[in-house]
Amino acid sequence: MDHYEVAFQELGKPIYVYIYAFDTTMNSVIIQEGEGEQRPVYYISKALQGVEQRYQKIENATLAIITTAIRLRSYFQSHPVSSCHNPLINYLHTDKVLDDLQKARRIKREAAKYILVASQLYKRGFSFPLLWCLGELKTKRAIKEIHEGVHGSHIGGRALDSKIVLTQFYWPTLKKDSLAFIKKCDKCQRYADQHQAPLKQLHSITSP
Known about the structure:
Blueprint: E1 2-5, E2 16-21, E3 25-34, E4 37-47, H1 57-71, H2 73-78, H3 87-94, H4 101-111, E5 114-117, E6 120-123, E7 131-133, H5 136-148, H6 157-166, E8 169-170, H7 174-184, H8 186-191
Parallel strand pairs: 7-8
Antiparallel strand pairs: 1-4, 2-3, 3-4, 5-6, 6-7
Helix pairs in contact: 3-4, 5-6, 5-7, 6-7
Protein name: Integrase zinc-binding domain-containing protein
Domain Reverse transcriptase RNase H-like: 12-92
Keywords: Endonuclease, Hydrolase, Nuclease, Nucleotidyltransferase, RNA-directed DNA polymerase, Transferase
């Protein structure tokens, strides 16, 4: 396993952890925000060996989370950690619901669509594997990377949200956010297909 410190950390300042799980490797990096940008602080890379290379993607993600939690324990102890107050996640964790009966029924109904794996929320599906539910901080980065990143092709809104799902990401406002992002994309607005019909004089049509 390779691990090294990239930059000095600022004690007491919140940290963000990005975890990537692939077929042959797992990687994680600690990020701190400063001066309007994200700066890497610590990086871990582990090559999967033996039976680990036969893990399913969800098992790779679980291994990555556990490995990161063990290796970076000192970082988590010396920095603020945000806790989740989402009623749905709390219900999946503790099987307890709110006192409001109407909200409790809605949470129980929604909970059937989700599952927790190593404290990470995933959405179930019939025609696709488990989808990783992204938090608010990661959704914009995911849309931008898939739309205009290395493998991006500036596809339209409907195709974009479908591609995000194929990448195994999900969040409740996925379709709405995809359409909104396309409308703000400068290249899409400049070079999108336009109506090319030649201009002609309009003629009124009267009914017989």
